[in-house]
Design goal:
Low-confidence stretches: none
Number of helices: 10
Strand order of the largest sheet: 1-2
Number of strands: 2
Number of domains: 2
Distance between the termini: 40 Å
Order of helices and strands: HHHHEEHHHHHH
Shape: flat
Largest sheet: 2 strands, antiparallel
Helix content: over 70%
Strand content: under 5%
Length: 253
C-alpha cells in the first residue's frame, strides 16, 4: 500500500495521544527554532504520508497566519521584558533581541500547534476516531455513541435550517431591516430546530434500546480497530520529529 495513506490509516487514538504529547512537549520550549523545525517537519510528514487537500489546508492557514502575526505584533510592541541588545530602533521605538525571540517563539508555536491539529483533523475519520477512543482508551460507550449520533445529526440540522429559512422567505418572513430585529427573529428558526432535534434524539434512543444497547462495555466489536505495525512506525516517526525539533532548537538557540 502507498505510503501516502499511512497517516489516514493510522490508529486514531494513538494519533490523538501523539498530538497531545507533541503540544505538551513544545509548550516547554521558549526558543523560536523548536516550533519552527517541528512545523516544517509536520508539513513534510503530510507531503510524504498523506493525501491532504492542500487547497483546503491553505484556506485554514489564512486565519492561523493572521493570529500568528497578531502574536508577533503585540509581543514586540507590548512586551514586558525589554532587556537585551537593541536590534531595531525607529523614532524612539526600540526592539531588543529578547523581545524578538519571544515574539518569534509565540508565532512559530501557533503554526506548530495548528499544523499538528490540522494534520489530525484532515487525516482522521470522526466515527473511526470515536470507536478507537472506546476500544483503545476505554471511553464510555454511552458517551461514544452519543457523540456519534450527534455528529450524524449535524448535516440533517443544517439542511433543516436551510429549509426553514426558505419557507419563511416564501411567506415574506425574515426580511427585518435592523440587526436587533433579526436577532429577535432567530427564535422562529431555533424553536423548530430544537423541536426537531428532540424528536430525532427520542427516535434514536428508542432504536438503540430496541437493538439491545445498554451502554455496557463490549468484548467483541463489529468493526475492531487495532494498533498495528505501521501505526507504531508512524508513532516512531512523529516522536523522532519531536526529538529532532527539541534538540535542534536547543542547539540553535
Amino acid at each position: 500500500m502507498s505510503s501516502r495513506t499511512w497517516l489516514h490509516d493510522m490508529n486514531p487514538a494513538l494519533k490523538f495521544v501523539l498530538v497531545i504529547l507533541s503540544m505538551l512537549t513544545l509548550a516547554w520550549f521558549f526558543n523560536p527554532w523548536t516550533p519552527l523545525i517541528f512545523f516544517a517537519g509536520v508539513i513534510l510528514l503530510q507531503l510524504i504520508f498523506s493525501k491532504v487537500n492542500w487547497r483546503v489546508w491553505s484556506l485554514f492557514m489564512i486565519p492561523i497566519a493572521m493570529t500568528a502575526f497578531g502574536y508577533l505584533w503585540t509581543t514586540v510592541v507590548f512586551a514586558a521584558d525589554t532587556s537585551g541588545e537593541v536590534i531595531f530602533a525607529w523614532r524612539g521605538f526600540e526592539v531588543t533581541d529578547e523581545q524578538w525571540n519571544t515574539a518569534l517563539s509565540l508565532t512559530f508555536r501557533v503554526f506548530a500547534f495548528s499544523s499538528m491539529s490540522m494534520l489530525f483533523a484532515l487525516t482522521t475519520e470522526p466515527v473511526k476516531f470515536v470507536m478507537s477512543l472506546m476500544q483503545q482508551l476505554r471511553l464510555s460507550p454511552k458517551l461514544a455513541y452519543g457523540v456519534m449520533v450527534g455528529y450524524q445529526f449535524l448535516p440533517v440540522a443544517r439542511e433543516e435550517f436551510i429549509q426553514i429559512r426558505h419557507a419563511h422567505r416564501l411567506r415574506g418572513i425574515g426580511e427585518e431591516k435592523y440587526v436587533w430585529q433579526r436577532l429577535l427573529g432567530m427564535r422562529r428558526l431555533l424553536i423548530p430546530l430544537l423541536a426537531g432535534a428532540v424528536r430525532r434524539a427520542e427516535r434514536s434512543s428508542f432504536a438503540m434500546e430496541a437493538r439491545g444497547f445498554t451502554g455496557e462495555r463490549r468484548s467483541v466489536y463489529y468493526e475492531p480497530i487495532a494498533i498495528g505495525r505501521r501505526d507504531w512506525l508512524m508513532a516512531i516517526v512523529i516522536v523522532g520529529l519531536l526529538l529532532v525539533s527539541s534538540i535542534g532548537g536547543l542547539l540553535l538557540a
